[in-house]
Design brief:
The protein is an all-alpha fold. The chain contains 12 helices and 2 strands. The chain has one domain. The longest helix is centred in the middle third of the chain and has 45 residues.
């Protein structure tokens, strides 16, 4: 029982850190363009993150059942492996936050899950659901690490860059006869809407990941009997999943949604100024029209991914959208040394957190 509550606590700590680590994704552009003050931008991001967290559960289902075969992990090690996965993700998030690098919290969590799950399953690679093809459906509706994580990991940044570049190029054409005064005035207001859209999409994708972890832990606790001694006032924890009349799992319990949404919003309110500085100022100089294009692009990429249950990186989407917008302005507008640091953080996140999760699980098992 103690271990189960440790999983939930670690998951909520991860959610809180995810909130302030990824705050910059929602508000870096609206702060750098001076459309909103940092305080108002954080309030907007926290509110829209909270609302977005209640939108859909496809990503949560991918995290809870679409990446690892839980049957191959011994029941007594299931909760411990989740703690190690979350610890690896938290350590990586704090490290990249300290250096001001906008790395992916999503991939940090997924890498930790894969690494700790592999260690818990005694290096049985069958525990990792690499691909599960559904006959007669498009590839983006298939299951497994390949279709839900690896392919989207490359496609979502690419889409962010291309769509950002195209959208900004179209805006340059449409606004070529506008005076700077009217461009700033119109898109200063339009960016309020795009920033809210970005915050909503961030909540809809990122908050669901921790919902999936908590649901996975409680379902495992039910199967192992760990929740059998819950006091009466915690009876609601016996039902982490919403079931239909046939007993099929169709969603995450409302109390899990509420808890994760509030914790992420609280983390968002704490802010993440180092990453805001990197994305909003160091990478490329932005005006309100550029911020609008970048936010609208990234938010659309995230909403599409969330619809198909793909736990993609908010960081990747907004960063490459900013890059695409910057290249539409002129290629030299990008600070390539900062871009290079960001790319290294991206490529290292999955393997680094997988190794962290694996190492922590092996170390913990050795101590028990």
């Amino acid at each position: 029982m103690t271990l189960l509550f440790t999983v939930i606590l670690a998951a909520l700590i991860f959610e809180y850190i995810n909130g302030f680590h990824d705050t910059a994704n929602s508000i870096a552009t609206v702060v750098s363009t001076k459309v909103l003050t940092p305080r108002l931008a954080i309030l907007l991001a926290a509110t829209t993150n909270l609302v977005g967290a209640f939108y859909g559960t496809a990503v949560a289902k991918t995290i809870s059942s679409g990446l690892l075969d839980a049957k191959l992990i011994p029941g007594e090690l299931a909760a411990l492996s989740l703690v190690c996965a979350l610890a690896g993700g938290i350590l990586w998030n704090l490290l990249t936050w300290w250096f001001g690098l906008p790395s992916s919290s999503s991939h940090a969590l997924i890498g930790g899950l894969v690494g700790s799950g592999l260690a818990a399953a005694n290096n049985n690679w069958a525990v990792v659901i690499f691909s599960k093809v559904k006959e007669g459906v498009p590839w983006f509706k298939h299951e497994g690490l390949l279709y839900k994580v690896i392919l989207p990991m490359f496609l979502s940044p690419l889409m962010g860059f291309v769509v950002g570049l195209v959208l900004m190029t179209l805006l340059y054409g449409l606004l070529r006869h506008w005076t700077p005064y009217w461009v700033s005035r119109v898109f200063g207001k339009a960016q309020l809407a795009s920033a809210a859209y970005m915050g909503f999409s961030h909540g809809s994708n990122d908050a669901q990941k921790t919902m999936g972890i908590i649901a996975l832990a409680l379902v495992a606790g039910e199967k192992s009997g760990a929740t059998s001694t819950l006091p009466q006032w915690l009876e609601f924890m016996h039902h982490p999943m919403v079931l239909d009349l046939a007993g099929k799992e169709i969603g995450i319990a409302p109390w899990i949604k509420v808890t994760c949404a509030v914790v992420m919003a609280a983390g968002t309110a704490a802010g993440g100024w180092k990453i805001i500085k990197t994305m909003g100022h160091k990478m490329v100089r932005l005006q309100s029209v550029h911020g609008f294009a970048a936010e609208a692009t990234a938010a659309s990429v995230l909403m599409t991914a969330a619809h198909f249950g793909m736990p993609v990186s908010t960081t990747h989407a907004i960063t490459t959208s900013i890059m695409g917008v910057g290249c539409a302005k002129r290629f030299s507008a990008l600070n390539l040394s900062v871009v290079e640091r960001i790319l290294w953080a991206w490529f290292l996140t999955l393997p680094a957190t997988a190794l962290l999760g694996y190492g922590l699980m092996r170390l913990t098992r050795g101590l028990l």
